[in-house]
Each structure stands twice: as structure tokens, then as C-alpha cells.
Specification:
about 240 residues; about 5% strand; DNA binding; three-stranded antiparallel beta sheet; 2 domains; mainly alpha; Arc Repressor Mutant, subunit A; transcription; transcription regulation; GntR family transcriptional regulator; Four Helix Bundle (Hemerythrin (Met), subunit A)
Length: about 240
């Protein structure tokens, strides 16, 4: 057999990826909140998979820092401490500065068009679907990293942006998404001019604004219906 031909994924592997994608999206969109308990039976029931697959998915999310797992206590959505939150935001700022320095050197008109289409989606979602708006705001940064051409950098940005979503769900105050969209547009405008310093300055301003909206107060609801929340993500 030709070694270059990929073997198709097993059915179990496909189901595992589907559950992983659904749970991860629910976390990123802040439908599942820090501290929410993830019961294997509930997840298996909603996604129609075995507990073995659920455990595999939870272990994967745990490795990304999105889920906490403790012996005899099960899994919960991670609850970063204030100290961890500050470290994550500091790391994110360093990573995203490097993304923009690299991207400003190589950005193409097609890249700019891709970024602009994404911001247009953010604008549309902002008035129609709050959960999608939250996810798209994070995906803008992941797209920037992907366009930089550095896969390692892109992987770390993906992870840190996801963890920031948890932090914002736990500590941030309500705010208008219009601010983020405007700040994203400023980054695109600087990249269009291939002005790396202006792009970095725009990102610094944006992430400082995000940080200022976070680390304020923690709110939680102990009586959340996880079954109902997961219904949207299991389809």
C-alpha cells in the first residue's frame, strides 16, 4: 500500500472528534461556563456515544487546559485563578505581537480579503447571535496566527485564545462587541499598509482593552441545565 495514502478514520475516531468539536465550541461560546460539571453519562446521552469516547474527549480538553479532572470528583469546566489569568493574558500578548510582526512582512491581498470577510461575519453575528459573536471574535486571532505561516505559533495562539474565553466567562463584565470589531478592523487596516508597528500597537490596545474588561468579578449559576445546553452542540 502506498504510504502516502491516508487511512480513513475509524467510526469511533470520527465520533470522538465530533464530540470534541461540540464540547469545545460550547466552551468557547461560553455556553458551558467555568465550574460546570461534565457528567460522562449526560455527555454520552446527548451525543449518542459511549463513556469510553467521552473519557477520551475529556482527557483531550484537559490537556488543552479547558477542563479540570480530579479523581473521584469527575470533570468540570476549568476555573483559572486570577494569577493564571494574568499569566495567560501576558503570554497571549507576547505571542500575538510576534504573529503581527511576521504577518506584516508577508501579508497578501488575499489574506486581507480573508480577514475582512471574517470581520464582516463578526459584524453580522453581533446583531443576530451572541454566542457566535464570541466565538468569531476569538477565531479572528486564530486566523491571524494561521496566516503568519508559523504552525507552532498558530497552535499556541489557538490554545491561549481558548483559555482566554474561559477567563472572560469567569471574570469579565458585560461589554459591547462593537468595540472588538472596531479594534479588529484597525489591525486589518495596519496590515493592509504592511505597517508592523501600527499593527502591533493596535493589537496591544485591543488586548489591553480585553484585559481591562476581565479580572473584575466572578459570577456563576449553580443550577444550570447542562443537558439543555449540550442539545445545541450535539446536533
Amino acid at each position: 500500500m502506498n504510504a502516502s495514502v491516508r487511512k480513513p478514520k475509524s467510526a469511533a475516531g470520527t465520533r470522538s472528534d465530533s464530540v470534541y468539536a461540540g464540547l469545545r465550541r460550547a466552551i468557547i461560546e461560553q455556553a458551558l461556563m467555568p465550574g460546570d460539571k461534565l457528567t460522562e453519562d449526560v455527555i454520552g446521552e446527548r451525543f449518542g456515544v459511549s463513556r469510553t469516547i467521552v473519557r477520551t474527549v475529556l482527557a483531550r480538553l484537559h490537556a488543552e487546559g479547558l477542563v479540570d479532572m480530579q479523581p473521584n470528583k469527575g470533570a468540570t469546566i476549568a476555573q483559572p485563578s486570577l494569577s493564571e489569568a494574568q499569566d495567560v493574558f501576558e503570554t497571549r500578548m507576547c505571542l500575538e505581537r510576534q504573529v503581527l510582526v511576521r504577518l506584516a512582512e508577508k501579508v497578501t491581498p488575499d489574506d486581507i480579503e480573508h480577514l475582512q470577510r471574517h470581520v464582516n461575519l463578526e459584524t453580522k453575528a453581533n446583531s443576530q447571535d451572541g454566542a457566535a459573536a464570541i466565538r468569531l471574535a476569538g477565531e479572528f486571532h486564530i486566523l491571524l496566527a494561521s496566516l503568519s505561516g508559523n504552525r507552532v505559533l498558530a497552535r499556541y495562539v489557538d490554545e491561549v485564545v481558548s483559555r482566554c474565553s474561559l477567563i472572560l466567562a469567569l471574570y469579565s463584565r458585560p461589554h459591547s462587541s462593537d468595540c472588538s470589531i472596531h479594534e479588529h478592523q484597525q489591525i486589518i487596516d495596519a496590515l493592509r499598509l504592511r505597517n508592523s508597528q501600527a499593527a502591533v500597537d493596535a493589537m496591544d490596545h485591543h488586548l489591553k482593552a480585553v484585559t481591562d474588561r476581565a479580572l473584575l468579578s466572578s459570577t456563576s449559576d449553580k443550577h444550570r441545565d447542562i443537558r439543555s445546553i449540550l442539545d445545541r452542540y450535539a446536533s
